[in-house]
Design brief:
The complex is a heterodimer of chains A (about 300) and B (about 575).
Chain A (H helix, E strand, L loop, with lengths): L1 H6 L12 H17 L3 H45 L6 E5 L2 E4 H27 L2 H11 L1 H30 L8 H32 L17 H22 L18 H34 L1
Antiparallel strand pairs in A: 1-2
Chain B lengths: L3 E9 L8 E8 L4 E5 L6 H6 L10 E8 L2 E2 L5 H7 E4 L12 H11 L4 H14 L15 H13 L5 E5 L7 H18 L2 E5 L3 H4 L5 E6 L2 E6 L1 H9 L15 H8 L10 E2 L5 E2 L4 H11 L2 H5 L19 E8 L9 E8 L4 E6 L5 H9 L6 E6 L2 E2 L2 H7 L4 E4 L12 H7 L8 H14 L15 H13 L5 E5 L7 H16 L3 E6 L2 H7 L2 E6 L2 E7 H7 L6 H6 L9 H11 L3
Parallel strand pairs in B: 3-8, 3-9, 6-7, 7-8, 15-20, 15-21, 18-19, 19-20
Antiparallel strand pairs in B: 1-2, 1-4, 4-5, 9-10, 11-12, 13-14, 13-16, 16-17, 21-22
Helix pairs in contact in B: 3-4, 3-5, 5-6, 8-9, 9-21, 14-16
The chains are: A mainly alpha (about 300), B alpha/beta (about 575).
Chain lengths: ~300, ~575
Amino acid sequence: MTEKNRTGLGETSTFAGYHPAVNFIFFVFAIGITMFSMDPAFLALTLAASWTWSYILSGSKGLKFNLLMTIPVVILMAVINTLFTHNGATVLFYLFGNRITLESFIYGLAGAVMLSSVIVWFSCFNVIMTSDKFIYLFGKAAPVLALTLSMIFRFIPLLKSRYTEISMGQRCMGRHTEKSFLEKVRQTVKEVSILISWSLEASIETSDSMEARGYGLKGRTSFHLFKFTDRDKKLLIFMTILGLLTAAGCIMGLTTINYYPTIVLGTWNLMRILTLAAYGILLFTPAVIGILGEKKWQALQSEI
Amino acid sequence: MASIAIRNLTFTYPLAESPALRDVNLDVEQSEFIVICGKSGCGKSTLLRQLKKNLIPYGDKEGSVLYGGVEIAELPDRLSTTDIGFVQQNPDNQLVTDKVWHELAFGLESLGMDNQTIRRKVAEMASFFDMQTWFRKSVSELSGGQKQLLNLASVMVMQPKVLILDEPTSQLDPIAAEEFLKTVYKINRDLGTTVIISEHRLEDLIPMADRVVVMDQGRIIAGDSPWKIGDFLAGNSAGERHPMFYGLPSVMKIFSACGGSKMQKGLHRTSDGKRIAPLTIRDGRLWLEAVLEDSAKSASLDPVRMPEEEILPGDAIIEIKDLWHQYDRTSPQVLRGLNLKVKPGELFCLMGGNGAGKSTTLKAVAGLIKPQRGSITVDGLKVCKENTGKLMGHVMAMVPQNPQALFTEITVEEELAEALYDRKLPPEEVAARVENMLETMEISHLRKSHPYDLSGGEQQRLALGKILLLEPKILLLDEPTKGLDPFFKITLAGIFKKLKEQGVTLFMVSHDVEFCAEYGDRCAMFFDGDVVSAGPARPFFAGNSFYTTTANRIVRQWNENLVTWEEVAAWAEQNTIR
């Protein structure tokens, strides 16, 4: 259990098991709406939801990483906006003859919270949207794109392992003990050039193997292992309704907020509460699904 | 009707002086299992490539290659894709996609099948090849053997009628190779697929074959059932042996040396009463059981004993003391308190299964990894960061498994000269040394070729030559016989012998039992992170019951001291009833 607290559920979380389209739609709503709303209530929701889910997915290790990534962003944005934007009615003090206002500080802080939430959402995106899901979704648009992506994901580790081998081979000859900077550069250039000629040579065989298996025939399809089940359909409809509700609310201006010259919050009415509720439920859905999935798993285990 | 018919095929590469294939005629029946063998560069690959439409090389072609009566070059693309499958040498280079399941589906995607059909076919193939446990893995996580099996499976998923394999196991270790060949055999027997395979490793393959075809300089010089091919390759005397004779299974070599099929006694009979030569260890034992003199069988022998190891402390050129290593904090220990000594001027062979830690030992000696505990002394110097500059490239050098890792130049000549570029020698001196090395490695005729245009065996030789130009006192070798034809193995042994005479110490890691038994001075068996037994080659193999040469396994019930096939052949010849 302690190990799980450290590293989180990762790819084993229940939400990751849903169809890639469901995963993707969630991120489109979550990140999309986060990016365009500066309403404090919205920001609070997205901040809380993103960090909660990130903790569930990546554990304390992920938490540490997120803190390291976002704290500098928050400080930087708040400070920069405060120092360089002089709009706003409430003057706090004067610095080198410039007005430092409360409004610009708060605006900077809100922007920082928005940006850091987006960063955390993307860290979740990274865990959930594995390469094959990505390939599948984009392959829907164009099979060639899917294959290209797949080949790139194949090529990266291959190049890495080849480079290690080359570097070792060069060490076998007593190279790599160079002292001067110029010699080091020369050795690196040599190794990269070996890597390139080796890979080009190897790619001839790869293209042979592709052609031998019919690449280039008309009507290529794109295979995948994903199944769209009832559970996916239900969640997709649920999330779409919530997402559209929120988006409609935003478009109707229910969440518009003015920071300058003075901060004017939106008025509280039923529609605004409804929009906020829809957004909150939407954002916490994957986290809740993850926790429920884990509880169910433990319950099933204890029955054995 | 023959499924493939080759008629008077002559083929010349552009700009080549002589044809790569000369007047080749071959008929392949449906569901036949054909093995094609021959020295490196004899035209095997060129011939096989003529059988697959998109792989046919450019050049002048005369004669015809027919599949089901149609010229292969004129087959419809779709038919050529589905009916003829082709597996190449290198496991890595043939893989296209990042996931195992996607690789399996690749061909079916090309054919435009829908998701449901692909799913079913892929499932069937994965079950046939027993790939369920690694079905969802990334291809970069697989071992070499698994990669090659995946290449085979992703061709088989299209259900080809003919399967062509061009030296498919040359990059694999013997255990993975054996498993791969067994799978090919299963495909032939269970699915009825016609198999045409070219290979150097005949020990496992010949008993599976319906027909063995021998090629030499672009010609087919023999094509017969496996039990007859031994006679042909053996010629009439030891001097007349064809180079490929040395690649035959030990049983067949011993049988041929004892007179071949002139002997009638003790032979296994086929269902139609023909007597056939032994191909497997079992057949070989039964045959010897029948023909050996009783005196030879019951002679009480003193087994050669492993001498007490007596290497004085100052005597060893490489000394490994209590070495421990693990790659990761969470991964298991690869080396567990390893102790090892290598004497100057010997060929030391470190043998053992996969993942036992043999290569790790070699890397540790070369200073490429830093072990957690223990010490290594090479030629009086401790292997550590400060000394690597003095040791690597001067006192010792290592030949990597993949020769490509060394190649930077555009001709063989320049490639060799590159080894000396930081030695500050006058150009005439460099030229002279390069010239010398070209001759030693027997690659003078290739001096202007591009290193990548050489065959696998030639590339190995070039890499070895490049390393030897550094004039190391100690040469470290990682699987030097991998992918070499049996004939060049003999040449390689000659090169090793010359080096030893010059006082060079050779430390090699290998799976090749036959090579180590024949040419190694001392051998050691590696298991579970430590050496479990070590000693001079003969008592070492005589003392092992399973991990020993095939020849020894055949006769060890009567005489366990005979290790190489030549010894067994000489002994059997003396002791058979005429």
